[in-house]
Amino acid sequence: MGFAAHFEVVLYKNIILSTHPERHTENLFSWFPGLFPLRKLFYCPNECNIVFNIKRKFDKEKVWYEWFIEYEENGELIKSELQNENGESQSMNLS
């Protein structure tokens, strides 16, 4: 369980690059869709609004993303644990 992520950018007027499945730019091989998994499943009732929080982090050696979700249930804020903290599961080397 998690979230799929696609990238789309308008570089200039009608010059668009996209990884979205319905609008994928032909021969675009340098950008890829992303997957942001959750370690634990969460039950979110119908019409529940989920807030997906993501932050890009880096140090001298690597870059990574950390994320968590939050939503309200019966007046209580439910928040997942921070995922991929310090790039523990996924990171990209800078060298």
UniProtKB/TrEMBL annotation:
* GO cellular component, as recorded: cytosol; nucleus
Q: Name one Pfam family in it.
A: PRMT5_C
Domain PRMT5 oligomerisation: where?
A: 2-92
Molecular function per GO: protein-arginine N-methyltransferase activity
Question: Has keyword S-adenosyl-L-methionine?
Answer: yes
> GO annotations under biological process?
regulation of DNA-templated transcription
Which keywords does UniProt give here?
A: S-adenosyl-L-methionine
Protein name per its UniProtKB record: PRMT5 oligomerisation domain-containing protein
State the species of origin. Meloidogyne incognita
Q: What is the organism lineage in this UniProt record?
A: Eukaryota, Metazoa, Ecdysozoa, Nematoda, Chromadorea
